[in-house]
Write a structure and sequence with these properties.
The protein is globular, with a radius of gyration of 15 Å. A 5-stranded mixed beta sheet has the order 3-2-1-4-5, with helices on both faces. About 35% of the residues are buried. α3 packs across α4. The chain has 5 helices and 5 strands.
């Protein structure tokens, strides 16, 4: 996966953090970042901190479990940064990065929004249940 010169979208799920991921992408030479967080002000503040010449950073409030929010953040990214190369989801259980060049040609952005919503729901359903398990149960897995 090539980061240098890439436009990256980082969508943060409730309980996740995109800060470290965003810092890694800017250090690796990304051409621009759009950070979306469900909580008002989080992505915007991070964008202000990381924005620099050669790697503009845009922060928006949005919930990637809603296809309309995904469509809006894709529009915003393309308007301010150009075509998206990498789409990332940062959740409470870790990070997932998808290179849009590796997606099948028939997978349009509307279908991607549906898939991201499903992934977000799956992460939200699985991770809290794992955190509630007693420590001895986790050790046996």
């Amino acid at each position: 996966m090539r980061v240098t010169g890439s436009v990256v979208v980082i969508a943060v799920l409730n309980g996740g953090s995109g800060a470290d991921l965003a810092r890694r992408f800017t250090a690796a030479g990304a051409a621009g970042l759009l950070i979306a967080d469900q909580q008002v002000g989080i992505a915007e503040d991070l964008a202000t901190e990381l924005d620099r010449p050669g790697c503009p950073v845009v922060g928006v409030c949005g919930d990637i479990r809603r296809p309309s929010d995904v469509a809006a953040l894709v529009d915003t990214a393309e308007k301010h940064l150009g075509p998206i190369d990498l789409f990332c989801v940062a959740g409470p259980g870790g990070e997932r990065i998808v290179s849009l060049a590796e997606l099948p040609a028939h997978l349009d952005l509307e279908r991607l929004a549906e898939l991201v919503a499903l992934v977000g729901e799956a992460i939200g359903e699985v991770v809290p249940a794992q955190r509630r398990r007693p420590v001895e149960d986790v050790a046996r897995v």
